[in-house]
Amino acid sequence: MAQYSASIITIGDEILIGQIVDSNSAWLADYLFHAGFEVKEIRSISDQPEHIQQTLDDAIATTDLVLLTGGLGPTNDDRTKFALNAYFNGEMVLNESVLDDIKAFIVKKRGYLKLIENNKAQALVSDKATVLRNPIGTAPIQMFNKSGTLIVSMPGVPFEMKHVFEHKVMAELHKHFVLEAHAYRTFHVVGYPESELANKLEQWENDLPESLELAYLPSPGVIRLRLKDQVNHTHNINVQAKKLYEILGSQIIAEGKEKVEFTLGKILKDNNKTISVAESCTGGLLGHRITSVAGASAYLKGGITAYSNEAKEKQLGVNSATLEKHGAVSEAVAKEMAIGAAKAFNTNYAISTTGIAGPDGGTETKPVGTVWIGFYLEGEVYAQSFLFTHDRMVNMERTATVAMYNMIDWLRKS
Amino acid sequence: MAQYSASIITIGDEILIGQIVDSNSAWLADYLFHAGFEVKEIRSISDQPEHIQQTLDDAIATTDLVLLTGGLGPTNDDRTKFALNAYFNGEMVLNESVLDDIKAFIVKKRGYLKLIENNKAQALVSDKATVLRNPIGTAPIQMFNKSGTLIVSMPGVPFEMKHVFEHKVMAELHKHFVLEAHAYRTFHVVGYPESELANKLEQWENDLPESLELAYLPSPGVIRLRLKDQVNHTHNINVQAKKLYEILGSQIIAEGKEKVEFTLGKILKDNNKTISVAESCTGGLLGHRITSVAGASAYLKGGITAYSNEAKEKQLGVNSATLEKHGAVSEAVAKEMAIGAAKAFNTNYAISTTGIAGPDGGTETKPVGTVWIGFYLEGEVYAQSFLFTHDRMVNMERTATVAMYNMIDWLRKS
C-alpha cells in the first residue's frame, strides 16, 4: 500500500505568543491519519515571508502533502497569501468569482452589501494557484503543486477551516492520492497508571508481529491504546485484540476513536434512557461534556451544580444531617446527590460529583484531589472514591472522564 | 534590551496522529512571551532519533533557548532521552538521586514501594546533562548546552511539565539569560467582526510609532488586541491606548492577559457579591468556565442546566404560558430563567442562556446560532439576543464568553 506523508503548518503570531491553542492541527492530524496519511510534522511559524518560504522548502522536500492554515484574515498582520505567491513566483490577481462569493457572504451575514477595502483584498489570489471557493467565509482556499507535493492553503478560523477541509479539500486529496484508510483499533483502558500498564503489557507488546504498531495515548482518567497495522491486515489486529482482552479484561471499557461522551450517549440513546447530573467539584464540566455531543438533548434532561451545602440541601435534597456527619465530600453525600438529580429531572440514571478540586480546601484526611462520584441506576445507588492530582483543571477533567467511564461500567453490570 | 529567541519542540506520536491537542506549547509560549522571549517556532515531531536530531540542529542554529516536551514516559514508545544523549555524544548513566526521587514518588503515590523495570529506566540520564529533579513525577528534567543555546528536556504530561517549568526551569533561565519582561497591554474588544475592527482601526494602526507592534487575537465572542513595544517604552503604549479608547470607547470591555472568567470573578469577589447560572444551550459550560477559576466557590453558588421545557418550569420556575407563547429560545424565557436561578441559589446576580446550538433544531425564524442571554442584577432583569454560527461547540463557547463579558458590562452600568 502506498503510504503518503503529510506536514501541517500553522501560520501566525497568535500561537507563537501563546494566545491560542493550536486545535486545528490536532483536528487535521486526526483526519489525515484516518484517511491513510502519515503526518510527519506539525509546525507553527510566524508570518515572516522568509520563515514561510524556508519552512515550505523543508516540508516540500520531505512530504507529499502540505496543509497550511491561517494567515488569511482581513487584517494587516496576515501576510501569508503574498508570501505564498512570491514562493511560487506568481502574480496576485483579483479573482472575480471569489469577490462574488465574498459579496454574497457579506449580504447573507449583514443583510446588505457593505464592501470595505479589507474585504476586496481577500479576493486577490495567486495566478499560480488553483482556487477553491469558500462557502462559509471570505478567505479563498489556494492549491499549489511543486516537486510532486500538493500544497493547500486554508483559513485559520477553526470552524471555517474544518468546513472547507471536509467539503472541498478532501475531494481534491482523493483526486491526487490513492488513499487507503489505516487498519487500526483503539482500546480505552482505565484503572492503570501508564508505567504499570506498560509493565503488564510488556510480554504481549514484545511479541507483536513486526507490522503492528502500538501507541499509548494517555489522558486524564484513561489510557487509549492504538494498535495499527502498517500493511492493513485487519486480521492481525483482531488476533492481537483478542489477546489484549485476555490480559486486561473489563479494564478495557470502550473501543473506538470517539471520546467517552459519545459512547455514553450512544448507549443511552440506543436504550431510550435519560440521564441527569449533580455536580459539585466539576462545576458544570460533566454536563458540558455530555452536551457537547450533538443530539444530547434526547437523553440529558438537565443538571444541578451545587457548590454550597445550602444548595446541595435545597436543590438536590441532600440531608443536612448527612452533610454534618460525613462532610460534603463523602460517599453518603455523593449518593444523595445522585438520587436528588434523578428525582429533580425524573431520569432513569444520574451521576454526581463531589470532591476537592484544589488548589485550596484540602485537609489531612481529605487531601486536594479527593473525589467521590455517585451513580443512580433506576433505583440502585453506588458511589466510588478516587484520589487524583493537585491540579484543579486536571482534577475536573479527570473526574468528568472517570464518571462517564464508570457509568458505562455500571450500566453494563446492571 | 537583549531580546532572546526560543523554540518549543514537542515530541511524540500522540500529537501527530491527532489524538491530543498540543496545549503545552501554548502554555509555554505564553509564559515565554511574558518572560521576555520571542518564540520563533513551535514544532511537533515524531520520536525518531534522526528527526529529533535534525530538528535540534535547526533550532540550535536559530534560537537561544530550546524547550523540549514529551517522549520521557515509561513506555517503550518513548525514545527521546536516548536520542538526546546520542545527539550530545554522551553516555547513559543511572542517577542515584533521581532513582531515590522515583522511589519516594511511588511510595507517596501507592503507600508502598514497588519498583518495576520501567521505573528504573527512568533514572537513566545522559552524563552530558545537568539534571533537575522532578518533585511530582518520575521523569527527570535534563539541560544541555550547545553553541551558546540552552536546551531543556521536560516531561510531556501537562500538569507535570507546568509544575517543573514554573518551579525548576524558570530559575535556570534567569541564571542563563538577562530577562526583561515585554512592555504590552491587551485590550478585549467585543461587538466587531475582525475585518470591521481592522477597518475602524486602519488610520490609527498606520500611524503607530515604529517600535509598536499590534496583534489581533480573535476568539469566539471577543477580539483581543495586543499592543507591544519592542523597546519597552510603556509610555508609548499608554499614549496609543488612550487613542484606542477614544476610537472604541466601551467596546473595550476589559484589559489584561487573563480570560474573562477571571475579570468577572475579580469583580464579584471585590464587591462581595454572589452569582448563579441557568443554562440551556451551554449545557454546563458557563458554570464550568466560571468555576475553572480557583476560589470561585466564594461567589458562584451553583447552577441549573435545564434542557427540557419541563426542567425549565420545575427547576427554574419558568411559566408554562411563557414557554408556550414565546418558545424556549426567547427574551421572556431568558429573563425568567435568570430570575429562577437567582431565586434558587439566593444570589445577587444570575446569568441565563437559551439558544439553538445546532447542528439541528433551527427554524426559519430562529436559525441555528440564535441565542438569548438573560441577566439578573439584584432585582433588575435584562436580556440580549445574538446570532452566532452553525458550529455547535463554537456557539457554546461564544455564548459563554459573551455572557460573561456582557454581565461585566451590565455590572458597570448598574
Automatic annotation (TrEMBL), chains A, B:
<protein>
    <recommendedName>
        <fullName>CinA-like protein</fullName>
    </recommendedName>
</protein>
<comment type="similarity">
    <text>Belongs to the CinA family.</text>
</comment>
<dbReference type="Pfam" id="PF02464">
    <property type="entry name" value="CinA"/>
</dbReference>
<dbReference type="InterPro" id="IPR001453">
    <property type="entry name" value="MoaB/Mog_dom"/>
</dbReference>
<dbReference type="Pfam" id="PF00994">
    <property type="entry name" value="MoCF_biosynth"/>
</dbReference>
<feature type="domain" description="MoaB/Mog">
    <location>
        <begin position="7"/>
        <end position="175"/>
    </location>
</feature>
<dbReference type="InterPro" id="IPR008136">
    <property type="entry name" value="CinA_C"/>
</dbReference>
<dbReference type="InterPro" id="IPR036653">
    <property type="entry name" value="CinA-like_C"/>
</dbReference>
<dbReference type="GO" id="GO:0016787">
    <property type="term" value="F:hydrolase activity"/>
</dbReference>
<dbReference type="InterPro" id="IPR008135">
    <property type="entry name" value="Competence-induced_CinA"/>
</dbReference>
<dbReference type="InterPro" id="IPR050101">
    <property type="entry name" value="CinA"/>
</dbReference>
<keyword id="KW-0378">Hydrolase</keyword>
<dbReference type="InterPro" id="IPR036425">
    <property type="entry name" value="MoaB/Mog-like_dom_sf"/>
</dbReference>
